[in-house]
Structures are given as structure tokens and as C-alpha cells.
Records
---
Amino acid sequence: GHFTTSYHEFELALWEREGDTNSVIAFDAAGLKTGKVLTIPAYKTRIHVHNYYRNADAFTAKAAAGPKYISASGVGFLEPRKPDKEATRNLPGITFTLTEQGADGMDIVLYGGELKPLMLTLNGRRVFIQLRRKHYPLDFSMTLTDFVKRVHPGTTIPRDFESYVDMEHGPTSRNIKIWMNNPFRYQGLTFFQASYSQPPGAPQESTFAVVTNPGRLLPYVSSIVIFLGLLLHFILALVSFSRKRREA
């Protein structure tokens, strides 16, 4: 793929599929406040946010006693919940009116737990919209070519597993291996082997946890500072010793 996905940050994304790529317009969920109006000139459309919940439960339209919404998976009502201390457990929800120029508004509900996007026709184009985990684009791609799992003898419990990946960055490519406790580092990102999936009759999948560590150079900088401090101390002590010898 050409992007990584956040564990706990969300975005409201609209996109069109153009061959093997998507043309995406995304709004950070942190800015989705009640009464917020989002303008999307590309589709001659406005989004008026009614409610945004950082954490919510979703109920089907059959259980909803309020207004009917357009949704991707039959959600008809959101009930806010107190945000969980464990950020990855929060699933947000949003209700809004989407108004295309010259057309009636559409009341829409989206939930962070939905697996598929809502498809709409905007300005004569087929557009997908979803409240999804935030995507971070990459300027390189990684393709899984092989996956190896080893188990403890006599059990089905994994002992270790490793991924073989083709990485392409512009005209260059390289083969890399990522396995447990042996991550791959590139462009300030660290890719850890996190999990895997081998469903019968389906392609094997490998999941990587991707982290960035802005302070990764601090230990080296600290070591250099300590070394320079000791060197300066040694030089000053040597100068002081030489002066005393000359005075004697």
C-alpha cells in the first residue's frame, strides 16, 4: 500500500477512484465541531455538521426513534459515550447535512466502526464518503511476497513469523525481511511485525505497526555532548597542569 493508518485518529474522507489510485479530500476529525460548515468546491457541495462524537454507540434504523439518515450500513442513530482512556477503543460518529448546489440536502450518519464507505453521486461523479481512521500517505510502496510462520512443536501456537516484502521507491526497489523483534527502518519510520492473517482460500496478509520517533537521535546527541564535555574538562585540566609546571 501507499499509506499507513492511524490507531486512534479519524478523518472524514471523500474520494473518487481513478484506476489504481484514489483522489481524496479529507478533513481531520479534530475539527468536526457542532455547527461546522465544510465547503467542497470540487463537488459544489457543503457539509453542515450537526453532531460529532469522539466515542459513540451505533444503532440500526429500526431502533432509531428520531429522523431517518442515509448511511452505509443501516445505522440510524448514534448515542454518545464518554471517551475511553484507551484511545484505540473510541469509535466516533457524525451526523450532518450534505447539500449539493441546486439540490435538496441529504441527512447522513457515519460511524467509525463501519467497514465500508457510503457511495453518493455528487456533481455527476461517483464519490465515496467515510468516517475512517486517518490515512498518512507514503511516497513508497510495500508489497508482501511471502509470509513464513513457525509454531511450537506439537501445537498451533506461533513461535515466530516473518514477512518478505518488495519495497519500491521511484525507480529503485529492494527486497526486505521484517520479523518479530527485527523491525525495518526507513525515512524516520519503523515497521514492526505486528500480526498476520492466513484465511483459507484467500491471499495471506501481514500487518505492520508503524511508528515514528522524533527523539530517536537523542541518545547519540547526548553521547556527543558528554564526550565534548569530558574532552573540554581534560583540555582545561591539562592547560592548568602545564601552567603550574612552568611556574614551578
---
Amino acid sequence: MRMRPTKRRGFFLRPRLLRPGWLRNEDGFAGVDFALVALPFLLFVLGIVGIGLYFLASTSLENSVESAARKIRTGEADKGDLTVGAFKDLVCDAAGSYINCGKVAVIVQHAATWSGISPQKCTDANGNMVSSTGSSDELVSKYAGAASEVVLVTLCYKWDLAKNFEFLQLGTGSNGSGPAMIQASTAFKSEPFE
């Protein structure tokens, strides 16, 4: 075999077998390796970011509905004449500034027993988001019932950021596209505050 020295690297000469030109040329291997790895890596990173944002929004809404519903559970909403609009503002304030309050619906139901409560979906038969309970100037106690009653507070949020992460298929469309619907609920028996 015929060998010839290659470029000088450091103090040593490395012999290389004679190969055709296209086999000797190693330019661009790093670019090809990067191109093969970059797309799956970026999709992986975007997936982690998307799922993280989804869980951040979901956890924030769960905590906010729990803290706002405390006003109903303890009777503060009844005695303080809290309106539906003010209750929705309490939920939005507790959720954080990254939650768009215009895309939040709050549904409040009450019954005498646990079996009298039937959870409501956040979307109607056409896939549209349901509206909040009552008008914003009505008292929330009208929908929350009296003392020692079972109450279900459901929060529906139309999360438009899911449209940016369509490959995760979190949306409400038939193929997983579009905005996602995040639902947070809390059920409790009101305290005997009367």
C-alpha cells in the first residue's frame, strides 16, 4: 500500500491511505451531524416548554379557583354581597398576570346533597366555550346557595398558546389543533356560616 503524509498537526505526521477524493474530503461532516440532530432536539425542547407552560397555566388556575372559592365556603361572599363579576376578578387576580381574564368563564352550582351536583363541560355541543354563570352584576350567593350546601365551582380557560404548539395536539379541534380548554374545579360543602 502506498501511503503519503498529510498536513502537519502538532509535532507528528499522520500517514493516510490514498483514497479517492470524495472519501478523503471530510468537510461538512459537522454540519450534516448537526442537521440530523438539530430538528429532533428543537422539537424536544419546544415540547418541554409547551407542556411546562400548559402545566403552569393549569396549576395557576387550580390554585386560583381554590382560593377564590374560599369566599363562598366561609360565607364571605354571601355576607359581603360579592357579585359574579367581582368573584371572576378574584379568580383572575389569584391566577396571575399571564392568564387572560377575558377568556375565563366561572360556573358556580349548588345543591342540597353531593348527588345533586352535575359537573358541566367547558364547551357546548358545537365546541364553543360556555359563558360564566349569570351576569356580572348578579350576586354570586344566588348561584352558591345557602350555608351547609354542596357547591361546585368550575373554571374554564381558553388557552390560545396551544395554537403555537400544535405538534403537541393539546387543542380542542378534532385533530388537536387550535386553542386548548383548561378546566379547574373545586367542590365543597359550605360552612354553617348563618
---
Amino acid sequence: MKHVALPAPAKINLHLQILGLLENGMHELDTGFVYVDAADRLHFSEHADIRVSCSDKALDGENNLVHRVLT
């Protein structure tokens, strides 16, 4: 089974405006941000289905934004 771990850099929004709702349920944004010296680590493995787990169990599964993006 293939496995890869990638950083997901943290950022601070300098401004954030929601412009509207897209057909896929995501928001159209106008934003400006800067990256900071912190990051989460995303781990990907080959599976027949999409499963998302998190160190914070409240963020597991289909409600996780990563799951929504992948589906």
C-alpha cells in the first residue's frame, strides 16, 4: 500500500470576504493571507474508498472539509 505525508501550511487571513455560494456548496472567496511557520501533516494512503480521520475525532468523516474536497 502506498503512503505519502504532506504538510498543510497554516496561514493567517489578512482579510476574508465571502462573495457567494458556488453550485458545489463551497464559498467563493476574496482573501489575502500570509503563511506562518506552523503546519498540519496530511497522510494519504491507497484505499478503495475515501476515509478521513483526524487527531480531533470531532473532525472525522464526511463533515471534514478534506473529505468534502475529495468527493
---
Amino acid sequence: RGEEEFFQLSIIPSTDCEAVSLVAGALSGPGTLAADAVRWWPEAYANIKTAHRPRTRLGMTPDPLLETGPVDAPTGVNTTFCVGISVPRDAEAGTYTGLLSVRAGGEELAQVPVGLRVYDFTLPETPTFRTLITFAASSMKPWDKRPAREVEQDICRVLHEHGIRGNGSTLTVPAKIEDGKVVCDFSDFDARIGWAIDELGFNAFFLGPMFGGGTGYSWEEYHDWIGMKRLSPEFNKHFPEYMRQVAQHLREKGWFDKAYLYLWDEPEADYFDRLVELQKLALQADPEFKVWETTSPAYEKFWGVVKAWSVPFGRPHFEEESVEARRAAGDEIWVYNIPATLEAPPQIHRLWFWQAQQYGAVGAQLWNVNFYREIDPWEDITPKPYPVGRGENKGKYIYDAGQAIMIYPNPAGEGRPLPCLRLKLLKKGIDDFEYLTILLERLEDQARARGEDDPAFVARARVREITSELIRDIGKYNLDAGDLERLRRRVAEQIEETDRGR
């Protein structure tokens, strides 16, 4: 209950069909799932002109999901729809069946039987697994001329619909120095964060100022702060006072626990000391700031300063000993970077979340969903290479097709951006994580009832045993889609079984 399940439906007509649409009827079973529980979107195609991986098939590839509405279906060509069925939170458990009508210009072409099994448990409205996903409203300007605030809100709505509850567009409170004192302007910041929290129930956001980061630049090449050089005497005097005012304001608004202070991204070892000094200045203002860093906990210089680690989810960056050490210290362990590629098997967009559960992550970060670097995503879905490295190590980062692009500009120009099949897979991955979390809770309750010394350890060991059927090691997956479906069903049935035994 509370879940949306997806499938695809394709037609290959023997004659041209105009204005093809889908019409759903109610699904019947132990109760009734109303017809409006069924949604559908025509699928469009992305063009893979260049690829990073040699085995990637070039050419037109299904991915963008158009707004719901009739589409023409040419003779002998796949015309495909993504269909979603949302299960009401009060639905009775059991199997439901119904018919989906395929129509062209009002005339029925075919009826498609649909069956759905509803399990006897409910997913929470706010996913347990937390997500912070970066986007930039400004990237939509070539297609959408609306005010940036409107575009930003539409992007947030699309992400929210796919299980995302974090605003990854780093927001900074503007400030200036007047008569030697820091003066903050919270008006725009409050409007943007307040809307996301009140309207969409977002539970996390990135807090700036973001001074810089990533590979390719040195410490000296990045941003200063309102005219002051970082770590200069003047900066060291005013920056803690600025952060104190920000912390106080966030506490008054009830937003402090949702804020992740993101001062620097993907730091490099030659300036770790200076970055830690910068982060400590913020902690002078409020020692409870959740300082965020996209790096490995193996770098002990950040211990006791960073409170939320966005650990690159691969070897050698994700190293269990240091991860467990920081988890034991009370730090949050997030994983980075949620898959967003058209060049890998589609299953990884879900299996990645099974992997996150196996290694005990509380959430994940994705950079970015609309990084259209020197491309029009409707014409070419592969961002142009990006300069990285310094000195003798200079080079270029080569993107996969679709990497850092999970939403498309609305082809009509102004209007809500469009999601894609990969976002639906991401949503299902978040749901899979929830299944495993619910089972983990049930198993811990059972272990406690049996009098086990460490119920949490017993439950976690059992869930890891389950996930290991799909996750061999970080980035090494069992890609058999049938195994994924069978294991997910087994998890659901075990949840039902444990609930009946309560």
C-alpha cells in the first residue's frame, strides 16, 4: 500500500494510427482500485551520439516520458507507454485484475489484461532513505524563460514525485558588512526553503556558502566571501558571526536539523588542512552544524569535524573500517553518486539501493539531474567532456550518455520539466530500500522477543544475507532481473509472515 508500480506497454500497428491513448478501468479484487489509480505517459527517445563505454548501442534510446496525452503511432514502429498503478493507503491486500484499453481517435484497438498483487503492509509517505539531488534552475533557461523560482519549484515537484525529499540546490543566505557588523538577508532563503518544506515535506537541504570544490582547481582559485579572502584575519572575524546568525535563524524556524552545511565539494589532499580550518570556523558559531563532505572517512583529518559523509560508493573510497568507525562515532553515512547513466544495465538503478541497504547508508547524493553541458538533451544526451586535474595531472572527465541528466526540458518550452524511465527506476530502488528497512525492523522485533543479546545485529546480519544474493561487492551485481523480482517478492512475503506472527 502507498506504492506505485510501473510497467511498459508497446504497440506495433500494421497501419498508421492517430491520437493513440490509454484508458484504464477499475481493478477488482478484495476491494476496488479506482480507474484514476492508473497513470500513463508516452515514451520518447534520447539520441546517444557519443558513448563512453565501447559496448553502448548508439542511436535512439527510450528514456524521456512525455506529458500524458494522445500520440500518433506509425506503421511498424514501436510506440511505447510507461504505465503506473498507485495503490491507495487503505487498499485491502490481495490480487486485483482489470483491463487497459488502447484507443486511437476514440476507437478501441485492443484490451490489455492487467494484474496487480497488493501486499499486506504500507510504505511510509516519507521514504526512510534520504536523498539530496543537485539541480540548477538556470540550466533550463535556453528552453524555459519563466522566473527561476517557478522553474526551481517545478523541478522540485518532479523529484518529489519520484521519492526525493531533499533539496540539493545549495542555498546561501546573502550577507554584507555594515558598520563593521554582519547583516544577513533571509527573505529569499526563507521563501525557497519554506516552500520546499511546507509544500513538499522536504526533510533535508544543502546550506552554503559553497566556496568551491571538485577536481581541476586549487584552493586559491575558488570563491572568496563578500570581498574577503578565505581564512584572512577579516574573514576569520566575520565568518563565525555570519554562521552564528544563520544557525540561530534556522533554529528559530525549526529547520536546523534539516540543514547540511556544504562548504566544499570533493576536496583534494593538498588543502585538507585549510578546509578543516574553514569548517571549524563554522563550528565555532554552532558546534551542532552537520558539516557535509563528499569524501572518504579514511581521511582522518576530517574526523570530529565532518558529521555527514557522502562517501563515493566504490573501491577504494568506500572502506568499511573507516566507515564503521565514523558510524560508531555518531556520524551519518551517505553514499555518492546515485547512478544516472544510459550506458549501464537498467537494473543498476535499483540494485544500487539494495547495495546502500547492505552497507547501512542512511541516504544518497546525486550530482546532477540537469547538467546539459554544451548540449541540447533532445538532440544529444551525452554532456561534453569536462576539464579536471591540475598541473601534470590535467585531463578531461568523459561523461556517460545521460550521466547527470535525469530530467528533460519541456519540449513545449515553458512548463514543467519531464521525468524519464531512469527516474522511475530510481523511485523503485527507494521503494526496494523501504521493503528491506521494514523487514529489518520486523526481524529486530523478533530477535528482541527471542531474548537475543543484540537484536539489531541479528536483524542486520539476516538482511545482509538477503541483499548479498544480488550484491556481490560494491559495484558488482547479480543482473538477473528475474532474481531481483523473486527476491523482492520473498522479502514482501516475509514481512507479511512476520506481521501475522505478531
